[in-house]
Amino acid sequence: MSATELIGFVAATLTTASFIPQAWLTFKTKDVSGISLGMYSVFTTGVAAWLVYGLMLGAWPVVVANAVTLALASGILVMKLRYR
To answer: What pTM does this model have?
Structure first.
């Protein structure tokens, strides 16, 4: 693994891990009152675009981080639509 890939994996791990507490709290409480539907819709679409971009480049740090974030963000978005 090159230094560039290592930095990419570290960055991807940190940014994705920072998202987990919010997702966990939302899944646990089902409280989506403080979440903006517009913001999460745009965010989730953006994460999906980053995932496609990473796949097209074969940039695995980008792919892994955005696949995990997309799963979490999609779950929150579904909860926002379900429990509004």
So the answer is: 0.85
Phi, psi (deg, nearest 5) at residue 72: -65, -45
Q: 6-31: per-residue pLDDT in tens?
A: 898 899 899 889 989 989 999 999 89
For every residue of 22-78, which 3-state class applies, written as one string? HHHHHHHHCCCCCCCHHHHHHHHHHHHHHHHHHHHHCCHHHHHHHHHHHHHHHHHHH
- pLDDT at position 1 is 79
Secondary-structure class of domain 3-83 per CATH = mainly alpha
